[in-house]
Every structure is written in C-alpha cells, then in structure tokens.
Amino acid sequence: MSLGNDRFTLERGIAALPAAVWAAFFDPKARAIWSPPSPDEVFEVLEHDPRDGGTGLHRCGPKSDPTYIVETRYHKLDEPAAVSFTEIVRKGDTPLAASQVSVVFAATEAGTRLTLDVYTTSFVGDGMLAGTKGGWTTSIANLIHHIENAS
To answer: What is the DSSP string of 60-86?
Structure first.
C-alpha cells in the first residue's frame, strides 16, 4: 500500500449571492452538470441527503465506464455559509482515497467568495492526489461558469 497526503485550498470569486452558490452546489441536477471535470466524464447522484449527519453516494468516471463510487458524509452544514464533509472514493470494494472537505461561501460586494479546503489521503499513490486536486479545480471552475451563465 502506498499512502500519500495532500492539502490544497481553492479561493474563487463568484458573481452571485451565497444562497445561489449554495443552491447550485447542493442541487443534484446542477451537480451532474458542473461536477464532471471533462465532457468525457459523468457524475451521477445515487443518494443525496445534505444535512448534519446525512450522506451522499455518487458514481463518476469516464462516460464509458463510471466505476468510481464516492461516499459522502456531511458533518456540519450552516446554510448558506459553510459545509464540512468527508468523502471516500472507491473502485469496486477497493478504497482509493479519503478526503476531509470544507467549503465557505462568504458574501462580498461582488457576490460570493468560495473557499474550498481539501485534505486527502491516497491509498494508491500520488496519481490519486493529483486527480483529486485536478478534479476539484476543474469542477469549481465549471460551477462558477454554470452559475454565472445561468439564464
């Protein structure tokens, strides 16, 4: 087993109020649109219960073979200001990584300052760490595009 750890923070400005950003972040239909990091990938919401102690279950990966399962446990939600949750990524019965994630949605004059803080432990090496960071970076960019271009 090859354990590795990484921590990263993404801070982004969004031209929308925190309530609108929160809604897009937690809406399963919106999440299926903005979460895939590329057009060749898919993000399917299987279970969705975003509340203190609630859980989520998602399947993701290439459209041709979305074999990754993400189990989410929500620890604390403070709508529309902040959320803390953990995620475990699996392929079949094999755990690949576990992450602690916090997101703060702070009101600004221009809309919202989103701060995403992720601490990940990979059980399969550095590639999973790079994939986690790259996936979140692209997904948050997609979220911003989704919100700012909504009609």
So the answer is: EEETT---EEEEEEEEEEETTTEEEEE
For 81, phi and psi rounded to 5 degrees? -95, -35
- For 35-45, the pLDDT digits (tens) are 998 899 999 99
Q: How far apart are CA 137 and CA 67, in angstroms?
A: 21
Q: Number of folded domains in the chain?
A: 1
Query: Rounded to an integer, what distance in angstroms lies between the CA atom of residue 142 and that of residue 31?
Result: 10
CATH number at residue 30: 3.30.530.20
- Strand partners for 126: none
Tokens read off for 20: 């609108």
**Enclosing domain of residue 75:** 4-148
How many whole angstroms separate alpha carbon 140 and alpha carbon 149? 14
pTM higher than 0.85: yes
